[in-house]
Predict the 3D structure of the following.
Amino acid sequence: MKTSQDSLNLFPQQEQDFLCYEKQTLKAGFRFIAGVDEVGRGPLAGPVVAAAVIFPPGLQLPGLRESKQLSARKREAFFGLIRKQALAIGLGMVHAPEIDDINILQATLKAMCDAVGRLRLPADYLLVDGIFKVPCPLEQKTIKKGDGLSHSIAAASIVAKVVRDRIMTAYDGRFPGYGFASHKGYGSAIHMEAVATLGPSPVHRLTFKGVREHVGKNEG
């Protein structure tokens, strides 16, 4: 029988088991637990991308860790495994113009909410990376640095990272000169120099420092 959200406040503080949060939530009576994470809050260009992943209860992919600890090759390999093994995967993204309109925090929360809403199997509980809850009517637990503590959140971080990297690589072909394929929109020295020289592209976040100073430069 499901318990109230307050009964789920006592989670392990130290990582003892990469499924510890999932196991505690299953014991509380929930079945479809989605890990939720996002990628792309910090870049100067491109979308913020969020993913939600539901695994079968107790499933663990050996070697899976947060996306930052894996090489691009390993992320791609795990991406394929996650797609095969997950009960459901949802994606959400908010592009640069909307990020400028509503700010990056609200864009991130919107992307996460969209990812949860696009799960073909509805979740009944969320494990969310970070300190902000997803703005949707589901019981949930926020976990600071959760991508390093929860198997399902780590899977979501990998899915979001792979999808976003593929988008930025595609943008490299559409908007040459910025080097999107290499830095994925982050503020590297090469990227900053390109923005100063070429001005912002249509996928740059015009309200971000490092871009806003060059709005209108070389227009047309």
User: Anything to note?
Assistant: Residues 173-214 form one domain. The first helix runs from residue 20 to 27.
